[in-house]
């Protein structure tokens, strides 16, 4: 390609590696802002912190081995548990080893409810509802699409989990509380990494976690009490399947606390990452009207102007490629921390037991050795057969290996449907304003939302 296409904003890398004090102040707000220029090209780097040594591994072959981890040498690091334990407890996301295997075995049947064809009608209803919500706004002024995408994805997972809809007030509480949670969890963990006291921040994190769970904890409590009394749901859903789950060897079931933990991770993973990716996708489309028209033309051609069906989704290649490119540029989870559980050598560097090893989708997906014009928006790169190998190895928004996101297909289908319905309903434009900034904590979110001008088609 002679010239790179549109290059959307991303944090300007530091000129050189930050020292411990500077890194502390940058980490206080965002992980991705600590990166320096060489981070985007190096195969492996090392950072010494007061309480641990961590290695950033971008070598594709070695990163693949760590994520595949057939010998279970590299479980999830305690850093991730520290960030998420107040909200998720001991759920399948945070557990390791045999505990993780036991939980995964028990919850697997529940994911039958995320079967893509089975879930399509739920997604379609929620997508139409969010378009109606967008139409109800004052379209003479820019509309913040970030909380709307949270509503759409949270509503879909609410319907799938509990067989009921989530109202706008409920999704608004989740959006506000989880933003607070990320803010305080980031600062609490940063203090912990430097061995500093953090009790006040931990209390704030706990409060925000309770505020998120308050949206669905009463539903779980009521359903669980009815289940114990012998009543079964008229319409089976994920919660019903979790209550029915039994360990194949011990017959053990989930108690009330474990149900809340498992529902919390399904709810969080089922909406937060997708909402982040959708907000960035709509921003990219707003900056590239030619792509909007290309998507619109393909949608109309495939559907013949009628409703979008499950069979249509697989034919919407341009929509798929736009979303995949948005996930490449703005992966919702930019860093995957792993623990080294025994001495190993990687790229001639000796790693000790207890070291932190980080695989970064953010860096791997923006490395010029993996992708041409790595910081530019070019959905057609996913249609190019020459990129097929990189699409397998250097595209990691859902992780890889045994712990790959079980909802990857679900997330991509719901996103494609929401994107298609919005492009059908509106022309998007980014106002003449400062480009959006981002903050990288648990997920990658735009600072202050993303306000777009919407014009009805």
TrEMBL record:
<dbReference type="InterPro" id="IPR017972">
    <property type="entry name" value="Cyt_P450_CS"/>
</dbReference>
<keyword id="KW-0408">Iron</keyword>
<feature type="binding site" description="axial binding residue">
    <location>
        <position position="405"/>
    </location>
    <ligand>
        <name>heme</name>
    </ligand>
</feature>
<keyword id="KW-0349">Heme</keyword>
<dbReference type="InterPro" id="IPR001128">
    <property type="entry name" value="Cyt_P450"/>
</dbReference>
<keyword id="KW-0503">Monooxygenase</keyword>
<dbReference type="GO" id="GO:0020037">
    <property type="term" value="F:heme binding"/>
</dbReference>
<keyword id="KW-0479">Metal-binding</keyword>
<dbReference type="InterPro" id="IPR002401">
    <property type="entry name" value="Cyt_P450_E_grp-I"/>
</dbReference>
<protein>
    <submittedName>
        <fullName>Cytochrome P450</fullName>
    </submittedName>
</protein>
<dbReference type="InterPro" id="IPR036396">
    <property type="entry name" value="Cyt_P450_sf"/>
</dbReference>
<dbReference type="InterPro" id="IPR050196">
    <property type="entry name" value="Cytochrome_P450_Monoox"/>
</dbReference>
<dbReference type="Pfam" id="PF00067">
    <property type="entry name" value="p450"/>
</dbReference>
<dbReference type="GO" id="GO:0004497">
    <property type="term" value="F:monooxygenase activity"/>
</dbReference>
<comment type="similarity">
    <text>Belongs to the cytochrome P450 family.</text>
</comment>
<dbReference type="GO" id="GO:0016705">
    <property type="term" value="F:oxidoreductase activity, acting on paired donors, with incorporation or reduction of molecular oxygen"/>
</dbReference>
<keyword id="KW-0560">Oxidoreductase</keyword>
<dbReference type="GO" id="GO:0005506">
    <property type="term" value="F:iron ion binding"/>
</dbReference>
């Amino acid at each position: 390609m002679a010239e790179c296409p549109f290059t959307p904003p991303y944090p300007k890398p530091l000129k050189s590696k930050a020292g411990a004090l500077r890194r502390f102040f940058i980490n206080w707000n965002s992980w991705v802002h600590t990166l320096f220029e060489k981070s985007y090209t190096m195969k492996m780097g090392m950072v010494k912190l007061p309480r641990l040594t961590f290695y950033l591994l971008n070598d594709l072959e070695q990163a693949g081995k760590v994520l595949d981890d057939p010998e279970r040498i590299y479980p999830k690091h305690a850093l991730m548990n520290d960030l998420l334990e107040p909200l998720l407890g001991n759920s399948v996301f945070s557990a390791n080893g045999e505990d993780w295997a036991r939980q995964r075995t028990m919850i697997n049947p529940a994911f039958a409810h995320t079967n893509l064809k089975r879930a399509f009608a739920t997604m379609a209803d929620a997508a139409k509802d969010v378009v109606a919500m967008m139409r109800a706004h004052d379209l003479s002024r820019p509309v913040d699409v970030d909380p709307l995408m949270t509503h759409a994805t949270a509503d879909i997972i609410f319907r799938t989990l509990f067989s009921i809809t989530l109202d706008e007030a409920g999704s608004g509480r989740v959006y506000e509380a989880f933003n607070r949670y990320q803010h305080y969890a980031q600062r609490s963990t940063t203090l912990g990494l430097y061995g500093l006291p953090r009790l006040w921040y931990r209390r704030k994190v706990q409060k925000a976690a309770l505020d998120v769970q308050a949206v669905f904890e009463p539903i779980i409590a009521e359903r669980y009490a009815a289940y114990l009394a012998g009543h079964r749901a008229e319409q089976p859903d994920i919660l019903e399947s979790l209550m029915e789950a039994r360990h194949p060897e011990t017959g053990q079931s989930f108690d009330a606390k474990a149900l809340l933990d498992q529902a919390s991770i399904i709810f969080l993973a089922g909406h937060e990452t997708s909402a982040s990716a959708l907000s960035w996708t709509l921003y990219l489309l707003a900056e590239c009207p030619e792509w909007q028209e290309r998507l619109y033309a393909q949608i109309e051609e495939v559907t013949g102007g009628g409703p979008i069906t499950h069979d249509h989704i697989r034919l919407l290649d341009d929509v798929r490629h736009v979303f995949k490119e948005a996930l490449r540029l703005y992966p919702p989870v930019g860093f995957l921390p792993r623990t080294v559980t025994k001495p190993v050598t990687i790229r001639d560097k000796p790693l000790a037991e207890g070291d932190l090893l980080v695989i970064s989708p953010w860096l791997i997906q923006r490395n010029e050795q993996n992708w041409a014009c790595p910081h530019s928006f070019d959905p057609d790169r996913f249609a190019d057969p020459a990129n097929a190998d990189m699409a397998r190895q250097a595209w990691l928004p859902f992780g890889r290996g045994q712990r790959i996101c079980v909802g990857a297909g679900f997330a991509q289908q719901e996103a494609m449907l929401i994107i298609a319905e919005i492009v059908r309903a509106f022309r998007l434009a980014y106002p003449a304003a400062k480009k959006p900034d981002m903050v990288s904590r648990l997920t990658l979110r735009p600072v202050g939302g993303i306000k777009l001008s919407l014009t009805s088609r």
